[in-house]
Amino acid sequence: IISCLQLLHDDDLVHLIAYDDDITVVFENARAGARAALVPLIERITAGGSTNISGAIDVAANLLLRHNAEG
């Protein structure tokens, strides 16, 4: 994830959701240029239990609807 973040342009918007049994929005609507603040948040993600991918997709879809940006 950190490698992908490094490839983005500074003005790109990024959301990150971590999921296992629970779904956590790690950050939303962040500028990729804020890497120094975002990387520690990514590094705190740990592996957990089950995989609630359907819940994560629902949360992701809602984030995209809420933060719809032109371009």
Structural class: alpha+beta
From N to C, what is the helix and strand string? HEEHH
Enumerate how many helices there are, as a single number.
3
Q: How big a fraction of the residues is strand?
A: 15-25%
**How would you sum up the global shape?**
flat
Uncertain spans: none
Helicity level, as a percent range?
40-55%
The major pleated sheet works out as: 2 strands, antiparallel
Oligomer: single chain
Strand order of the largest sheet: 1-2
Compute the gyration radius: what is it?
13 Å
Count of DSSP E strands? Answer: 2
Mean pLDDT: 93
Report, as a whole number of angstroms, the end-to-end distance.
23 Å
Could you characterize what this model shows?
This protein is an alpha+beta fold and 71 residues long. It has helices spanning 2-7, 35-43, 53-66, and strands spanning 13-19, 23-31. A two-stranded antiparallel sheet has the order 1-2.
Short key terms for the protein model shown above:
41% helix; flat; 3 helices; 71 residues; two-stranded antiparallel sheet; alpha+beta
Secondary-structure map:
Elements: H1 2-7, E1 13-19, E2 23-31, H2 35-43, H3 53-66
Antiparallel strand pairs: 1-2
In short:
The protein is α+β, with helices and mostly antiparallel strands. It has helices at 2-7, 35-43, 53-66, and strands spanning 13-19, 23-31.
